[in-house]
Design brief:
The structure holds two protein chains of two kinds. Chain A contains 13 helices and 14 strands. By secondary structure, chain A is α/β, with parallel strands linked by helices. Classes of the chains: A alpha/beta, B alpha/beta. Strand 4 of chain A pairs antiparallel with strand 3 of chain B, so a sheet runs across the interface.
């Protein structure tokens, strides 16, 4: 996973409150863009052993996560009704950049690069490699992309169109990503992400990949699969408010929370923990806090809320999938990862954000939230499975 | 997908032709132009207030198409129904002109442009349309290549069947930009186009006295990387077998002959199965409309059912060159 190869390294880092934001090395346009971010490391050895041809870094990241997930789920044999839901924002943007470089330098339009640049190329490459025959699609809802991919994968299983869905997302570090946020006030130029803190200054861009294996419960039980948790609810809404800023009252996200609760058949007071979007911008964190208060009322004061983006940055299309993985680990291990860099409470963000240190607490049911650029909101409910 | 989903309206814009109906009525009469001129849709765009910045071309195209679609379905979005309205859109390369010009800017080491952020992601268009039209339900962009809008239709039908939305606008956009144009030509003639259909519960539409153009049933999607395209061909054989038994006139509408021999051979095979009279190639008719093709196929299917040729049902099969396919039955 992001900034650490493998789920265990990722999880240990979260439990220790390890900051993985560093000066960026992979981008070439340093003069006028974000200088800090999260770059994946430690998966090169894996790629040396299992190289993939003709694909770029986004696919390499996804491949590493995919292989781990398939091994962990003991899911290597051919499954007739298996599909893939893949979320990404910029996909193989590196191929797009190479295409334009070649075009500008040599006047050559390279169709192979163009095909790689297509947002669904990573998904299609692995669907083909795994000989999948179930539903395979690619989703883009900015920051919520892998969350919506997971939610829509859930629906594929509910509608009996698939027994198993490989769901998640990936995005790579790129000049385009760095430049995209350079001109905005959303980037933490000092490289410190301080979600919900009074002095928060924005987020840091990161790269990563997340994959979860979703399976119909009885199908999983029958084949003796290890079950981490149950994915029980999904809600998706739009703010319809502003292309850059979230709805200041959090109404859109609140509706997504309520949709997900309704879908899971659970009451608001049964939620113990929220893995927040917690991006670290002034408006997003305020809007998210208001959304939580709006939906959970007095129970919001009892909730534990934390943002793993304080440690790993914003992994774009992979981010909500990583939130789901971290939350599944929370349910299994009884540890809630912290929101690091939290020093000064903000009177407007006055909930329990699990500041700076992980806590041990049993969690029965939890929620992951995401509020994407453009106003797309996503909420997912996960819960402990009854023995 | 069950049989309860109705198509209650649609709208499309295609380069060089304002009306798909006219194009179909007089196919030899149309003069295709791969580019769409948004100036043609001045009246559809008159609802947008004048701001300090002119809307980008791609946004004008999508907004004009949605405006036509709303009018066709006789729908007003109000504060009461907005949270039950969703937009699901197919768009794989995003706003190509913005993305490629941004990439050129990076190569030239030009400072970042503030407007790059909302346009660099493919879902930016659907998000802008949600704001413009006040759609507060799910707002999801499918970037699955040519089948993107067909995926949107399947998921849109689920939203209604599951009671998560009442009105779903599903569609897609295909625009061309200079930097990518010639390379895309190798994937067949790409035709700029944008199309949307409105999905509603059949029962609700009937109660409201709305015109139901067609209903959707038997939707399937999957992945088929094999060179013989066995799975989509199996679906077609099964459909034709059923059609022959009921002696209804069933038509196959296929999209996906634009990328290489494998696809054109597949289309020839399907045509052989269906018979010339009962086969239509969407790509032959309109050119490769890529991410808009799923919605254009649904519209074309509805128009065929509305026509005088006693067609009872249409099987629309959409295939992407990477391997994803979507099939759906469109019924009278």
């Amino acid at each position: 996973m992001d900034c650490g190869a493998g789920v265990e390294a990722f999880w240990q880092g979260l439990c220790q409150g390890r900051n993985t934001i560093k000066p960026l090395k992979l981008i070439g346009v340093k003069d006028y863009c974000c200088q800090f971010g999260g770059e994946a490391a430690g998966f090169e050895k894996f790629l040396k052993e299992k190289p993939i041809k003709s694909q770029g870094r986004c696919s390499e990241l996804f491949y590493h996560a995919l292989e781990q997930a398939l091994d962990d789920a003991n899911c290597r044999r051919h499954i007739p009704k298996a599909g893939m839901a893949f979320g990404t924002i910029l996909g193989e943007i590196g191929s797009g950049q190479k295409y334009i470089q070649k075009l500008m330098a040599q006047g050559k339009k390279d169709i192979a690069l163009l095909r790689n640049y297509s947002l669904n190329s990573s998904m299609a490459y692995f669907a083909s490699k795994l000989k999948l025959s179930g539903p395979c699609f690619c989703v883009n809802t900015t920051c919520s992309s892998s969350g919506d991919a997971i939610g829509l994968a859930l629906r594929e299983i509910e509608h009996s169109r698939a027994d198993i869905m490989i769901a998640g997302g990936a995005d790579m570090m790129s000049d385009m990503l760095a430049v995209a946020f350079a001109g905005t006030e959303a980037a933490a130029k000092d490289g410190v992400v301080r979600p919900f803190d009074k002095n928060r200054k924005g987020f840091c861009i990161s790269e990563g990949a997340s994959v979860v294996i979703l399976e119909e419960l009885n199908h999983a039980k029958t084949r003796g699969a290890k079950i981490y948790c149950q994915l029980s609810g999904y809600g998706s809404t739009s703010d319809a408010c502003h292309p850059f800023s979230p709805d200041k009252d959090g109404k859109g996200l609140s509706r997504a929370i309520e949709e997900a609760l309704k879908d899971s058949g659970s009451s608001f007071d049964s939620i113990d923990y929220i893995n927040a979007h917690g991006i670290g911008t002034v408006y997003n964190d305020l809007s998210e806090t208001r959304a939580i208060k709006r939906s959970f009322g007095g129970h919001s004061k009892k909730l534990k809320i934390s943002s793993i983006k304080s440690m790993i940055g914003h992994t774009m299309g992979a981010s909500m999938g990583l939130d789901v993985i971290a939350t599944a680990k929370t349910l299994c291990e009884g540890i809630i990862p912290p929101t690091i860099n939290y020093k000064t409470p903000d009177p407007d963000c006055d909930l329990d954000y699990v500041p700076n240190k992980a806590i041990h607490q049993k969690v029965r049911r939890a929620m992951c939230l995401s509020a994407g650029l453009g106003g797309q909101n996503c909420a997912i409910v996960v819960e402990k499975i009854s023995p | 997908m069950n049989n309860e989903i109705a198509i209650t309206g649609f709208g499309c814009v295609i380069g060089g032709e304002e009306s798909l109906e006219r194009w179909l009525r007089e196919p030899s009469d149309h003069s295709p132009s791969r580019r769409i001129d948004p100036a043609v849709y001045k009246s559809e765009l008159s609802f947008i207030p004048q701001g300090p910045f002119e809307l980008p071309r791609i946004e004008k195209i999508v907004a004009a198409t949605l405006q036509k679609t709303l009018k066709s379905a006789k729908i007003s979005i109000t504060d009461e129904n907005s949270s039950r309205c969703a937009i699901l859109m197919g768009n794989t390369y995003g706003s190509e002109e913005f993305k490629t010009s941004s990439l050129r800017g990076i190569e030239r080491k030009e400072p970042a442009k503030i407007f790059l952020v909302p346009y660099s992601a493919t879902n930016a268009l659907a998000a802008k349309m949600s704001i413009m039209f006040n759609f507060k339900g799910p707002d999801i962009t499918f970037s699955s290549g040519a089948v993107s809008a067909s995926e949107a239709i399947l998921v849109g039908s689920d939203l209604i069947n599951d009671g998560r939305a009442d009105i779903v606008f599903v569609g897609g956009i295909n625009v061309i930009c200079d930097d990518l144009e010639e390379a895309f030509d190798q994937c067949g003639f790409r035709q700029e186009s944008c199309a949307f259909v409105v999905l509603e519960k059949k029962k609700s539409a009937r109660t409201a006295g709305k015109k139901i153009h067609a209903t959707l049933g038997d939707g399937r999607h999957g992945f088929c990387a094999d060179k013989d395209m066995q799975v989509p061909q199996k679906i077609i054989k099964s459909f034709l077998g059923r059609g022959n038994q009921t002696k209804s006139r069933s038509v196959i509408l296929n999209r996906g002959n634009s990328f290489g021999e494998k696809f054109s051979d597949n289309e020839k095979f399907i045509k052989g199965l269906a018979g010339k009279k009962n086969f239509i190639s969407l790509d032959d008719l309109l050119g490769n409309t890529f991410c808009a093709s799923g919605a254009l196929g649904a519209i074309l299917g509805s128009l065929l059912l509305d026509g005088k040729k006693a067609i009872k049902e249409v099987l629309f099969v959409n295939q992407d060159s990477f391997g994803s396919y979507v099939s759906m039955v469109i019924r009278r």
